[in-house]
Amino acid sequence: MISCLSLSSYSFCEKIALKKYRRCVKWGCIKRPQVVSGAKKDGFGLRVFVLSDLHTDYPENMAWVRSLSTKRHDKDVLLVAGDVAEMYDNFILTMSLLKERFDYVFFVPGNHDLWCRWETEDFDSLEKLNKLLDACKQLGVETNPAVIDGLGIIPLFSWYHESFDREDDIVGIRIPSLDMACKDFHACKWPGNLSNRDSSLALYFDSMNEKNQNTVKRIQSTCSQIITFSHFVPRQELCPEKRMLFYPNLPKIIGSDWLEDRIRSIHGVESSSFACHVFGHTHFCWDAVVDGIRYVQAPLAYPRERKRRMNGGTLSISQMSDAATNRSFVRVSDQEMASCAWFRCNRSKSDSSLQVCNGLTRTEILRACSHNEHVLEAWDV
């Protein structure tokens, strides 16, 4: 069943567009979860929070992290889907604060984490990556697959490649080059055999997942519920169409085909009702089921984006259910975590379901697209 929040404040033209969008969703492969009233907050199960694109080099974002309760989430899990901070010192501080607040913290790197513009030490982006991973190990932050209370959690390393974009280019207008729109081309420093201008980086980062294959296989054989997460986008359907983007070439610098292949190898080609992948990078709030896997993005994003609601806006935590799996969903009134999606895993004998509760549910794709001016800003032009 496809269900979306009603938007009584929409104009007549927006309602017409929304009606067309709903019809397309009904005919296509993208579905939205049902939103209903439901269970109590103190229901039985493990809670897994999801967050991406913290960008705590901004003082407002660092203040948001500091404001998180040191008691409310001490038994919860947090998945951080990249872009924590550009500066190494800010990264360390942010992850330390998060680890103080959550029992388990998982992390995968994003592109901003590997920028080397303002670092005092002279190292390239791969050396910085290794330094970040070493720091995570010292802080007790997980960067490898693990099982928490029967739930399999699998971080996936990734990078984008231009050939990921298969949509026809927009013609007839002047569009800035990728070098101008994306600072990765200047802020990252790669060894001579790696480059943003081909698929070498996407292949390199994907190959980093190979060392965990035995662990992944064990998780597949023992866990009925698995969450995978990455920073970059695994499918182009998880980004608005080019005609709705301020920067139409955005799909060329957001995702990886090898990432989607790896996700399918973990969850299965046909997938299951428990399959979920979390991503980040584009700063679009997202929650959709595509070919049997639920894809969720819950970015904190830049302060200016939140103030202007440029990434789809932040709504109250919703309750969602899936009649096919008899899931019961929980409402959270904790406003400090309103920028996180979160999951609850039941552990009763009668219900071993994975519940998904998204605190940044987009009202509609169209609404997010109507405020797409933030896309170019998202790359710090």
UniProtKB/TrEMBL annotation:
Domain Calcineurin-like phosphoesterase: 46-134
InterPro entries: Calcineurin-like_PHP, Metallo-depent_PP-like, Pantetheine_PDE
Short name of any one Pfam family annotated for the protein: Metallophos
Signal peptide range in chain numbering: none
An example Gene Ontology molecular-function term: hydrolase activity
Protein name (record): Calcineurin-like phosphoesterase domain-containing protein
